């Protein structure tokens, strides 16, 4: 039942990459939550929080295609190392302007966009490296281990961000991210040279066109992107968390950290007991059912917010002036988000495995770049959807309406994407 740790034992290079990325991701998730809280503090607008996504979306798309092309042309270790320097610089600059007390929102938007684009390039290079560091039979276990990395990051990172912002402020929180990010350099520097195999395409428009042509004739790879876009586009309610903590559930920043950490806690649990996932052959069908379960869990979270919102507003705390926490609603919301995180990580393990096993090495960097555009860009589209719907209707609307849409669409995909449902891990085909 427990996670297979064979990739860490059999490949010291993968182990170093995994450890360095695990530490760095904790700081990255701290900053994501801290930036959202900071923007909400400066503007008191959920829509303004969702604008962080809009600023980052364009650079992330360009970084996904461009970074993937670089990873298919040059040494992937060097691509990751150079981009990590850019990411660290953006975090350091954000720390500096926060200490200087700059209250204009655009520098934070711009630096968050640079950081997100850099993370996309690093992710594309890392994803293309893994099948070169491990045999194919260990790819599901590696995906599960990487799922644990992300789950730990979004469990510990947001919880720390909520507590640190509430106690010592935004600038020291950003500073801690800059310190933790140095672990990423350790993981990358310990890798061997990893130049692409096969024919190398020069970075540019032709390389992008070639990758799109491959995607057109690779329905199973294409399905992993489409299914995830549906899940993240309709089921990412995180931009409402600051307002939910302030107006519906009470608790302010600490509640925001608890909600985010609950999602990650479910993902962490699914990673810890991921042993059976390596024995699943019909991985496409597993993706479909996992995303349907994700939609049902997000719907439950929206229902909790709707019921809590029908009650009177939280009373003012006598001592601190902070809204009193509605504990029953908070616990139910956290349980729903934990279930969502559990099913989302199961989907991620299978989607990652399908992509790494089915895509040939000469296009793997570009496919990984597109994968990270979808994985990181999809939630940002979801942020915009959630921010607009929350502003137009209410805070409960994005998860409730979006979750129902996911379930309905997955039932439709189950009947229409039959080839993906028949995908066999023993004979992976793109």
UniProtKB/TrEMBL annotation:
Pfam families the UniProt entry points to: MFS_3 (PF05977)
CDD domains in UniProt: MFS_MefA_like
Domain of life where this protein originates: Bacteria
Main location: membrane
One GO cellular component term: plasma membrane
Any one GO molecular-function label of the UniProt entry: transmembrane transporter activity
Subcellular compartments: Cell inner membrane
InterPro entries xref list: MFS_dom, MFS_trans_sf, TM_effector
Membrane topology: Multi-pass membrane protein
The Major facilitator superfamily (MFS) profile domain, residue ranges: 176-430
Residue stretches spanning the membrane: 17-40, 52-71, 78-102, 108-129, 141-168, 174-191, 225-248, 254-274, 286-307, 327-350, 370-390, 396-414
UniProt keyword list: Cell membrane, Membrane, Transmembrane, Transmembrane helix, Transport
Protein name listed in UniProt: MFS transporter
Organism: Leucobacter weissii
